[in-house]
Design a protein that fits this description.
Layout (H helix, E strand, L loop, with lengths): L6 E6 L15 H14 L1 H11 L1 E8 L3 E2 L8 E12 L2 E10 L2 E17 L4 E3 L3 H7 L2
Antiparallel strand pairs: 1-4, 2-6, 3-6, 4-5, 5-6, 6-7
């Protein structure tokens, strides 16, 4: 959690994340943002909800991903996430990434709308209390 009430995840960039020039593949940022959301909620919370209640978070909508720069091999990527709950059924994560050595420079940002899906019925469900408590919303 960051001092502003958001969430912060750090990820080391490996050679496998890069192209021939050493820059991180643009598509990988989707994975990094997903990992940051998982860490914000808590892997244990998500796993318990999936295994015991048949509930899973699902990306419903992702805003335009805006690239203002990029990370390179051996950089530490920092993903900061804040979350809002505009309804009982939706969460909106505002996510942005920077390189740890250059925290003032946002290199990628997007908004992600997430819903909870009942895996048995394939219908949208209310965001569980466990997730709301984990996110403090």
């Amino acid at each position: 959690m960051t001092a502003q009430g958001g969430y912060r995840s750090e990820m080391l960039m490996y050679y496998e994340d890069t192209d021939l020039t050493g820059a991180i593949y643009a598509g990988n940022y989707f994975k990094y943002f997903e990992r940051a959301r998982d860490e914000a909620v808590g892997i244990d919370v998500l796993k318990t909800l999936m295994d015991k209640e048949g509930l899973a978070l699902y990306v419903r909508k992702m805003g335009e991903m805006t690239f203002k720069g990029g990370a390179k091999h051996a950089d530490t990527l920092v993903v900061e996430s804040s979350v809002e709950a505009p309804s009982d059924f939706r969460l909106v994560f505002k996510q942005r990434a920077s390189v740890k050595d250059r925290p003032e420079t946002i290199i990628v940002e997007t908004d992600v709308e997430v819903v909870c899906i009942d895996m048995n019925t394939q219908r949208v469900a209310k965001i569980p209390t466990q997730i709301r408590e984990a996110l403090r919303i």
